[in-house]
Amino acid sequence: MQDTVAATGSSVKTEAEGSNPSPAAKKSNPKAIGERTEAVILARLVVAGKVVLLPFGDNQRYDFVIDENGSFKRIQCKTGRLVRGAVKFACCSSQAHRGLGQQNYRGQIEYFAVYCHEINSTYLVPVDIAGTRTCQLRILASKNNQTKGVLWAKDFVL
């Protein structure tokens, strides 16, 4: 079950169910971390009542497709990290091994689905409002109290 997150003061409080991951799970390789992220996101999409389509193979720029009454939306899964009161995630992928550098997802997906294991929360963020390199979803107010241009995590909870 997804945690309830409350922003009070300068800390993030969560009501977690279950136990912490094992030390071995915390030291997993990036592929294993990504697979766990995809599994959690898939489960949360299904629980939310979404019709989820799984592409065959892993050569697409998206991980899932959701069918919303005949309208297909491509989703790229990302692992978010809790950094200074915000869930931060990459909005591009490295294609350096193909000589292409970093590639963003604009025009290739409709949503990022982001799972942050530190607070056990999942978000669905439209690609057009996320950055082209990174994106931050604020859990807590910034130290300078900036509000203009801030993406609040609560607005994208899946």
Written as H for each helix and E for each strand, in order along the chain, the element string is EEHHEEEEEEEEE
**Biggest sheet record:** 7 strands, mixed
The helix fraction, in percent, is 10-25%
Overall pLDDT score: 85
Structural class computed from helices and strand pairing: mainly beta
Number of strands: 11
Beta-strand content bin: 35-45%
Cα shape: globular
**CATH architecture annotation:** 3-Layer(aba) Sandwich
The tally of helices reads: 2
Query: Which spans have pLDDT < 50 for at least 5 consecutive residues?
Result: 1-19
Instruction: Report the CATH topology name.
Output: Trna Endonuclease, Chain: A, domain 1
Return the CATH class.
Alpha Beta
**Number of structural units classed as domains:** 1
Q: How far is the N terminus from the C terminus?
A: 12 Å
Any idea what the radius of gyration is?
Answer: 16 Å
What can you see in these coordinates?
This protein has 158 residues and is mainly β. The chain has one domain: Trna Endonuclease, Chain: A, domain 1 (3-Layer(aba) Sandwich). It contains 2 helices and 11 strands. Strands 3, 4, 5, 6, 9, 10 and 11 form a 7-stranded mixed β-sheet that branches. Strands 1-2 form a two-stranded antiparallel sheet. The relative contact order is 0.18.
